[in-house]
């Protein structure tokens, strides 16, 4: 054991000596490993951070939550021209399904609308995400409040002019003063502020409740009616826990078909989008990003491996005389082999460590510059270190074998 520790120490010394004596050559050769490890770990860290953010944003939602609408979350076998003819879901369909569905926890009605500006006295905020939704939304999504409350069922049904503000909107309009009970202007109308949400941070697609406001969906329905092309309705469905999702979706689809008076040979003119299917789609995209990152970074690692091999062949050439002396004094082939293998691994790990350091520095800078947390996990650190060591091991095998097989007499004579 002591022999191998001494061997490791000497190999580390040779590696440091190579860095000191041939700085430019060694640094250029290690650059390939550095870039390769940096590329792979940077991609993995970015994808892991995105995946973590997505899961955090969706944590408040039940993965069995259903979005019933005319559009599909993912690819569909139905031709686009036919999908464009599908009708929007209606408020009366929402009311019918809510009163007739079994195993139902909550059901809400929401409109997707374009952004608007909101004002309070001289203060104004533009590009605000407007969320017109029924009162059940708070139980479906689980909103958290810093102050105030969400609107209740009577306010929702009557389309009362009440509003719940995202944290950032409230800060921009009222700064540090209390927003509850104040009137803001939206759609040219006055709305009474009854709630302010807790700060959430940036969403997975740049959206966030911080930059959103919530109003009763019936307020907009009363203003613009139900046949406005600028509004896309959706029925939000939250089944009871433990329900058979296939049976629930079948019942939901059949009830809507019956309500619309559809014939048995007609295809569904709506889509039952389950949130778990959306998360599976996201997981697939994340997996593909990882694969692409590995492929691109693999070329950099390949170049880095050639660089390490080049250093080691030069090192064998420069130390031929020393190898001959070591073997003449009784050093075994295994000793010479491990000496060069250790040196190759150490050089490669140094290059990998620089790559990991660059990833860490960039992740810290981006986390502070953007409202998004980039995370360099210990798993990725160990992966990067292991990959660097493996590249060094593979790249150093051939030079090490070449050194181990040198004839001591020829090695001494060549080195003289």
TrEMBL record:
Record membrane topology: Multi-pass membrane protein
Keywords assigned by UniProt, alphabetized: Cell membrane, Membrane, Transmembrane, Transmembrane helix
Transmembrane segments: 26-47, 292-314, 335-362, 382-404
UniProt-listed InterPro entries: ABC3_permease_C (IPR003838), MacB_PCD (IPR025857), Macrolide_Exporter_MacB (IPR050250)
Protein location: Cell membrane
The keyword Cell membrane appears for this protein: yes
Domain (MacB-like periplasmic core): residue spans on this chain: 26-254
Major site of localization recorded for this protein: membrane
Residue span(s) of domain ABC3 transporter permease C-terminal: 294-408
Listed name of the protein: ABC transporter permease
Similarity comment text for this entry: Belongs to the ABC-4 integral membrane protein family.
